[in-house]
Fold this sequence. Notes:
It comes from Oreochromis niloticus (Nile tilapia). By secondary structure, this protein is mainly beta. Helices cover 4% and strands 31% of the residues.
Amino acid sequence: MAHAFRKFLPLFDRVLVERFTAETVTKGGIMLPEKSQGKVLQATVVAVGPGSKGEIHPVSVKVGEKVLLPEYGGTKVVLDDKDYFLFRDADILGKYVE
Length: 98
């Protein structure tokens, strides 16, 4: 997994994330059709840029953290046949604290 990110480093305040997979089966064991599966808004940070231009403001998340994304937005990036999404640091709604 890590070798794909040596080839791609986000610029400025961009954050590359991998969305969690959608639930395909309910707790009761019922299979959900694709249209019923909601858009997954949680993701894991896989790479971050150095910060915004001018006076450097570091990005507020770190690699490995779990974050909450907006329902819309982000740029789809395909690396090693896997889908990732690129967001600006300010677009990320929050991060989960363990």
